[in-house]
Write a structure and sequence with these properties.
Elements lengths: L2 H13 L3 H8 L1 H13 L6 H7 L2 H4 L9 H6 L1 H11 L6 H6 L9 H11 L9 H9 L12 H19 L3 H15 L36 E3 L6 E3 L15
Antiparallel strand pairs: 1-2
Helix pairs in contact: 2-12, 3-9, 10-12
């Protein structure tokens, strides 16, 4: 487990600098309280609740789950039966995942998000973003080349829980930190678009009088890595002077 990677995540968590990450963390209780009981009783899960979970404005954390909504809801009876099997705690999680079979749209991004919401203390999320961040920060576990999807998740989830323990945080917050880490690594990616419904004209306030502009916040301290020559936030520095954590 990379000490540099853990140190960076601790700095990122302590900084509270990313508004989207902070909002994701604050929304945890609302989402878990709403969807957790529904998924733990998957036999009675209705299509409407499932469809709402796929939308970012309801899950408050994952903005791409809705991309396969049409084919998932078209075969909702199969999806519900699959969830019943997936959430059966009498079997090892690896076996449950390997028994999913070929169900279009039912990707690890989706089913691990459902696992997290159903049991936030046991299951973490495995997604393209978390995989990328873990590998880049030196926190990727040893996974055999011939490992099944279930075996790979068991190894990844064990590492997620170890990292969360090291940070003294929870698996929901850790998943938000992976997103923040990837955004810092490449600021052109992973934007969250939040839309607000427009108010009727009768409810709109008249424009307020111009006021003095607030002072801009000081820019975060940066440094230039002597290996890749990229300008990066100081949180991305490693224990090796002059090198970012990607190059250390």
């Amino acid at each position: 487990m990379s000490a540099d990677g853990l140190a960076y995540l601790k700095r990122l968590l302590a900084s509270g600098q990313h508004n989207d990450v902070n909002q994701m963390i604050r929304d945890q209780r609302m989402v878990v309280d709403r969807f957790g009981p529904a998924f733990r009783n998957a036999e009675e899960l209705d299509e409407g609740t499932f469809s709402e979970f796929l939308q970012f404005e309801h899950n408050r954390h994952w903005w791409n789950l809705h991309r396969d909504e049409e084919q998932l809801t078209r075969h909702f009876d199969i999806v519900r039966a699959t969830l019943v099997e997936l959430l059966d705690e009498s079997r090892p999680i690896g076996d449950r995942i390997d028994s999913i079979g070929d169900l279009p749209g039912f990707t690890s991004d989706l089913y691990t998000a459902i696992l997290l919401v159903s049991d936030p203390h046991t299951y973490g999320v495995r997604s393209r973003i978390s995989d990328s961040a873990m590998q880049r920060l030196g926190l990727w576990p040893d996974v055999a080349d011939d490992a099944s999807e279930g075996e790979a998740y068991e190894a990844v989830n064990e590492m997620l829980r170890l990292v969360a323990d090291e940070l003294d945080t929870d698996l929901w917050t850790l998943d938000a930190l992976w997103w923040g880490a990837e955004k810092e690594h490449d600021p052109t990616k992973h934007f969250v678009v939040r839309r607000r419904a427009a108010k009727p004209a009768s409810q709109r306030r008249a424009p307020s009088k111009p006021t003095a502009r607030p002072k801009k916040k000081a820019e975060p301290e940066t440094f230039v890595c002597r290996n890749c020559f990229a300008t990066k936030p100081i949180r991305l520095s490693s224990d090796t002077p002059g090198l970012c954590i990607d190059c250390a």
